[in-house]
Amino acid sequence: MKGIKKLLAAGLAGLLLTMPVGAEETTWEEIPNANIPAAVIQKEVAEAEGMQVALSLPVKSAILIDQNTGTVRYEMNADEKLPPASITKIMSLLLFMEALDSGKIALTDTVTCSEAAAGFGGSQIWLKPGEEMTVDDLLKAVAVQSANDATVCLAEYVAGSEEAFVQLMNQKAAELGMENTHFACCAGLDNEGHYSTARDIALMSRALLQHPKITDYTTIWMDTLRNGATSLVNTNRLVRFYQGATGLKTGTTNGAGCCLSASASRDGLGLIAVVLGAGNSNDRFAAARALLDWGYANLAAVNITPPELEPLAVTHGTEPLVELTAIPPAGGVVIPKGQREAMTQTVNLAESLEAPIAAGTEAGTVTVTVEGQTVASYPVVTAAAVERMTFGRAFQRLGQGLLAMG
After folding, report:
1. Does 161 participate in catalysis according to the annotation?
2. Which of 61, 86, 123, 205 does the annotation list as catalytic?
3. Which of 8, 110, 129, 279 is deepest in the core (most CB within 10 A)?
4. Which listed residue (61, 92, 114, 146) is catalytic?
5. Distance from chain centroid for Cα 398
6. d(CA 383, CA 363)
């Protein structure tokens, strides 16, 4: 454990040495491609039980998780309830994608804008009452331009009204385990009953990214609508400037400050950084990039080759043994960078299983460790079914045996 902490601390120290100061004073016009200020971030290293590292970020709340496993890699005030601004639209987009996957709506559907959607205010593409636009174009407007009118338009199309759609949002939040979130609108306007946390936003961000189609929209830097008459520029500048960026959503209101859920993927490792309550736009992007940079400097995704497994004993079954299959994580496991050779796998199995046994019955787990620290575990299941031995089956087998002998 100490070895891992020292490795992470060393990686952070090297990262900090290259970071510019005064990032909050930098304007975007001054930033060349791929050189967003790495962070307003300071190193605080304390000697306790090994090296401990803390990041000092110019935001009220922050969290970094790996998309592969959902494991929290860094957090700061991650459960503080704060206004989420337009990061709210991550949940709206998640419900839109589910509606697409279920066939309830289609990208080619034409949606008519209502009076309510047209008059919603805030960031918009200036939809007019009665104007028609495809689901595909509306999704683009939501993901790229953070358009409130397009969001409400789609919400009404999916649920019949914005109010009904908000109920679906809160139901989905409960399903995802978002314990400190309550939505009052689908677009993210400031409201006393509208709040979330960095941890909850990371949960819904990971859920949204499980729909691969969404990155077709969240990675767009510039595009147009209305046959080129309306220009779109992504509010998330990391999409252009950060290597491997996959999204995800910005948010800015007077009550929330500047917020961002930033996602990226490199070499099979997906990361999600959520920052809330920055004082200005540069700070939110700098803080998010700092978290992502730290993650990619210190973590790596590796594929798992399961260990060979012996058959497991079966009691009271028509077969004495059952073959086993290990199911490693599809995205591999995430370990400290450079520690591949230190990774070990330990098989923990039941002594036996009692029939009847269905195929896919869990029989144990494989635990993955690095220097004694558990980094992942995955199930071991039965590869086939085994029926219970009954008097009738036993008599039948005896008869078959006698016939074979004759």
Report:
1. no
2. 86
3. 8
4. 146
5. 56
6. 10
- CA atoms of 356 and 258, how far apart (whole Å): 57
The one-digit pLDDT tens for each residue of the chain (406 residues) are 444 444 444 443 333 333 333 322 233 333 333 333 344 333 333 333 333 456 889 999 999 999 998 999 999 999 999 999 999 999 999 999 999 999 999 999 999 999 999 999 899 999 999 999 999 999 999 999 999 999 999 999 999 999 999 999 999 999 999 999 999 999 999 998 999 999 999 999 999 999 999 999 999 999 999 999 999 999 999 999 999 999 999 999 999 999 999 999 999 999 999 999 999 999 999 999 999 999 999 999 999 899 999 999 999 999 999 999 999 988 889 999 999 999 999 999 999 999 999 999 999 999 999 998 999 999 999 999 999 987 666 656 655 655 666 5
Is there a contact between 335 and 406 (Cβ–Cβ < 8 Å)? no
Per residue, the 3-state secondary structure of the chain, as one string, reads CHHHHHHHHHHHHHHHHCCCCCHHHCCHHHCCCCCCCCCCCCEEEEEECEEEEEECCCCCEEEEEECCCCCEEEEECCCCCECCHHHHHHHHHHHHHHHHHHCCCCCCCEEECCHHHHCCCCCCCCCCCCCEEEHHHHHHHHHHHCCHHHHHHHHHHHHCCHHHHHHHHHHHHHHCCCCCCECCCCCCCCCCCCEECHHHHHHHHHHHHCCHHHHHHHCCCEEEECCCCEEEECCCCHHHHCCCEEEEEEEEECCCEEEEEEEEEECCEEEEEEEEEECCHHHHHHHHHHHHHHHHHHEEEECCCCCCCCCEEEECECCCEECEEECCCCCCEEEECCCHHHEEEEEEECCEEECCECCCCEEEEEEEEECCEEEEEEEEEECCCECECCHHHHHHHHHHHHHHHC
Q: Which residue has the tokens 């314990």?
A: 179
CA angle in degrees (0–180, nearest 5) for 254-256-257: 70
Of 60, 61, 89, 281, the active-site residue reads: 89
The tokens 């790996």 sit on which residue?
A: 66
- Per the document, the length of the chain is 406
- Rounded to a whole number of angstroms, the CA Rg of the chain reads 26
Sign of the torsion formed by the C-alpha atoms of 316, 322, 328 and 329:
negative
